[in-house]
Amino acid sequence: MIAIIDYGVGNLFSLQSSFRAIGQEAEVTADPDRLRQADRVILPGVGAFGDAAEKLKRSGMDEAVRLEASSGKPLMGICLGMQLLFEKSYEYGEHVGLGLLKGSILPMAGRLPEGLKIPQMGWNALKIRKPSALLKNTREGDCVYFVHSYSATGCEDSLLAEVEYGIDITACVGRGNVFGCQFHPEKSGSVGLKILEAFCRL
Amino acid sequence: MITKRIIPCLDVRDGRVVKGVNFEQLGDVASPVELAAYYSEHGADELVFYDITASAEGRALFTDILRETAQRVFIPLTVGGGINTTADFDRVLKCGADKVSVNSGAIRDPSLVGKAAKLYGDQCVVLSVDIKRVDGVFRVFARGGRDNTGLEAMEWIRRCVGEGAGEVVVNSIDTDGVKKGFDLEMLEKVCEVAPVPVIASGGAGKIEDFIQLFHTLPGVDAGLAASIFHFGEVRIEDLKRRMREEGIPARIVG
């Protein structure tokens, strides 16, 4: 069973449906016990980093996620969920993340050449930086769907793929059993479903 | 590089696609779920479901259809039509919509965009505007293009984006249905005032119209159309291939 963590951030309908579509049982849960019983854990999220980090903490899920990650269980963060895996975010102030991956989240504003809109909204082509089990069925140039205004930096040791949006933007990360996608695999058509399938085989 | 999006729009009434659709491969298809799945497999980057139902019964049917679609189709879904309150946002987001498009609802209640953006995030709120030239001025029309609101279009767009609209769909009433190309003059003005993604709608009749759109206005992020896709006059695969040949970044499926 895959546990999708529900901590009051965002809409989990599509994510749960996408796992069902690839024949995997996924449960949306706010219960740390269910996390322990799960084979794999998904940390979703949309919205603001500070607010999400606070909700994660208040629900006790921050410790539960750390515990499961340290047990070696495959964990994947999606979109803001990926950002939460890092040490820090500079979205409206400075916020502490889970610290499971090295690096920090910075606003894209000010880092992009002129003419590029924020958020990055739409399909962009993956540039694979390092072979990984998560992207083993993903080809160079496969497009995935993004909606984000902040991105991970200083994460060279976990970087798996980037996309070009004026500058290179972190798209996918992974180190050990901890993975993250800045894009939405559940909204990225068959390319996205293949990534979710690969995650289920880790 | 981020690709230019191609978006088919499906008008749905009482759970069926309005006007029907005729594809050689599919025959006559009126099921929004089947059509959405077909478009997703054939390269659509996003889908818009437009609810033109009037009755409460039809509205319930629409959310059922939406839920069913979101269980089968894994590309972004935008829902519009009958969105007047944040409760309407809630209703369609819970059924799997990713973005919600507001048009007349925002004109009736100008605080709607701001309230929805605060609750669900800017990226979720799409401002849809029907614009027509009246005595040389771009005016916003309401109720499916029937009523002149008197609002100046660029001012209206600037205001709504300021309140949190994360994307703008520009429907030119002047070019809609004419099939002679998008309203480039109008779209250029919108690109100047809107720092968010701009989606062009109204006027596409052939592949070249999209090529001209993206070549002329780099600020336009997506092209939206309905009947030319539904009746097979433009096949999305062909359109995407041509875009690539013309140096326009496009996502090719498969």
* CATH domain fold name of chain A: Rossmann fold
Percent of residues of chain B in beta strands? 25-35%
Percentage beta strand of chain A: 25-35%
Large-scale geometry of chain A: globular
Radius of gyration from the alpha-carbon trace of chain B, in angstroms: 17 Å
Write the layout of secondary structure elements.
The complex is a heterodimer of chains A (202) and B (254).
Chain A: E1 2-5, H1 13-21, E2 26-29, H2 32-37, E3 40-43, H3 49-58, H4 61-70, E4 75-78, H5 80-84, E5 88-89, E6 95-96, E7 104-107, E8 120-125, E9 127-128, E10 143-148, E11 150-153, E12 159-165, E13 167-175, E14 178-181, H6 189-200
Parallel strand pairs in A: 1-2, 1-3, 3-4, 4-14, 5-7
Antiparallel strand pairs in A: 5-6, 7-11, 8-10, 9-12, 12-13, 13-14
Chain B: E1 5-13, E2 16-17, E3 21-23, E4 27-29, H1 32-41, E5 47-51, H2 56-72, E6 77-80, H3 86-93, E7 99-102, H4 104-108, H5 112-120, E8 125-134, E9 137-142, E10 147-152, H6 153-163, E11 167-172, H7 184-193, E12 198-201, H8 207-216, E13 220-225, H9 227-230, H10 236-245
In short:
The complex is a heterodimer of chains A (202) and B (254). Chain A has 202 residues and is of the alpha/beta class.
What can you tell me about this protein's structure?
- The complex is a heterodimer of chains A (202) and B (254).
- By secondary structure, chain A is an alpha/beta fold.
- Chain A has a single domain, classed as 3-Layer(aba) Sandwich (Rossmann fold).
- In chain A, the strands form three sheets. Chain A has an eight-stranded mixed β-sheet with strand order 2-1-3-4-14-13-12-9, with helices on both faces. Chain A has a four-stranded mixed β-sheet with strand order 6-5-7-11, with helices on one face.
- In chain A, helix 1 links the parallel strand 1 and strand 2.
- By secondary structure, chain B is α/β, with parallel strands linked by helices.
- Chain B has one domain: TIM Barrel (Alpha-Beta Barrel).
- In chain B, the strands form two sheets. An eight-stranded parallel β-barrel of chain B has the order 1-5-6-7-8-11-12-13, surrounded by seven helices. In chain B, strands 3-4 form a two-stranded antiparallel ribbon.
- In chain B, helix 1 runs parallel beside helix 2.
